[in-house]
UniProtKB/TrEMBL annotation:
With DHDDS, forms the dehydrodolichyl diphosphate synthase (DDS) complex, an essential component of the dolichol monophosphate (Dol-P) biosynthetic machinery. Both subunits contribute to enzymatic activity, i.e. condensation of multiple copies of isopentenyl pyrophosphate (IPP) to farnesyl pyrophosphate (FPP) to produce dehydrodolichyl diphosphate (Dedol-PP), a precursor of dolichol phosphate which is utilized as a sugar carrier in protein glycosylation in the endoplasmic reticulum (ER). Synthesizes long-chain polyprenols, mostly of C95 and C100 chain length. Keywords: Angiogenesis, Developmental protein, Differentiation, Endoplasmic reticulum, Glycoprotein, Lipid metabolism, Magnesium, Membrane, Receptor, Transferase, Transmembrane, Transmembrane helix. It catalyses: n isopentenyl diphosphate + (2E,6E)-farnesyl diphosphate = a di-trans,poly-cis-polyprenyl diphosphate + n diphosphate. InterPro entries: Nus1/NgBR, UPP_synth-like, UPP_synth-like_sf. Its cofactor is Mg(2+). Belongs to the UPP synthase family. SUPFAM superfamilies: Undecaprenyl diphosphate synthase. The lineage of its organism: Eukaryota, Metazoa, Chordata, Craniata, Vertebrata. The gene is Nus1. This is Dehydrodolichyl diphosphate synthase complex subunit NUS1. Pathway: Protein modification; protein glycosylation; Lipid metabolism.
Length: 206
C-alpha cells in the first residue's frame, strides 16, 4: 500500500523535515514517521526538535526506527546507510533507500554563523574576495546539510507557530504544513499531509 500511495501522488517531496515543537518528543511516534517516509519513497528525512533531544539520544531513536522498520517493512528494501548530522553515528544500516539526519538548533543559526566566520577567514587569507559570497558559496560552507538537498516539505508538529530554528537558510522555498501533534499520529494523517503538499502550486516567489 505504501509504495502505491507514493506513486499515486502527483509529486513526492525529495527531502522532508519532521519538526517537533512539543516539549516531550516521542521516539516511537517519530520512528513511525521516519519509516513511513521510507516506505512511500522519500529519499531524505531530517528530524528536529528545538531542545536537541533526538540528536542527543540518536541511538535510542535509531533503535526504535530499526524495530519499527522490521515490524512494518520487513526486508522489503535494499540496504542504505543512515547518516547523522553530527557525524558521530555513521555506518548503521537500515533496510530502505533513504538517508536520515538528526538535527538540533546548533545546525541552524549557529551553522550560518560558523559558515560566515569560515568565509571571513578565507577572505583574510586572501583565498577569497568578498564578492565571491553568493547563494552557492554559502550553501557549500554550511555543514549541517552537506550532501542534502533543501527540504521540499516540513511537517511541523505542535501548537507553536514557528519552526523554532530549523534550518532557517534552507527553507526559503519550503512548503510548511502544521499538524496538531506527532503523538499518536496515524498514517492517514501523515499521508493526508503528503497529499496536501502534492496539490500545492508552488510559485517560487512569483
Amino acid at each position: 500500500r505504501w509504495r502505491a500511495d507514493g506513486r499515486a501522488l502527483r509529486k513526492l517531496p525529495v527531502h522532508v523535515g519532521l519538526v517537533v515543537t512539543e516539549e516531550e518528543p516521542s521516539y516511537a511516534d517519530m520512528a513511525s514517521l521516519v519509516v513511513w517516509c521510507m516506505a512511500v519513497g522519500i529519499s531524505y528525512v531530517s528530524v528536529y526538535d528545538h531542545n536537541g533531544i533526538f540528536k542527543r539520544n540518536n541511538s535510542r531513536l535509531m533503535d526504535e526506527i530499526l524495530k519499527q522498520q522490521q515490524e512494518l517493512l520487513g526486508l522489503d528494501c535494499s540496504k542504505y546507510t543512515v547518516e547523522f548530522a553530527n557525524h558521530d553515528k555513521t555506518g548503521q544500516v537500515l533496510n530502505c533507500q533513504s538517508t536520515l539526519k538528526v538535527l538540533s538548533p546548533e545546525d541552524g543559526k549557529a551553522d550560518i554563523v560558523k559558515a560566515a566566520q569560515n568565509f571571513c577567514q578565507l577572505v583574510a587569507q586572501q583565498q577569497r574576495t568578498h564578492s565571491d559570497l553568493d547563494v552557492n558559496m554559502l550553501d557549500n560552507l554550511l555543514s549541517s546539510t552537506n550532501g542534502f538537498p533543501d527540504p521540499d516539505l516540513v511537517l511541523k508538529f505542535g501548537p507553536v507557530d514557528s519552526t523554532l530554528g530549523f534550518l532557517p537558510w534552507h527553507i526559503r522555498l519550503t512548503e510548511i504544513i502544521s499538524l496538531p501533534s506527532h503523538l499518536n499520529i496515524s498514517y492517514e494523517d501523515f499521508f493526508s499531509a503528503l497529499h496536501h503538499y502534492a496539490a500545492c502550486e508552488q510559485r517560487w516567489g512569483k
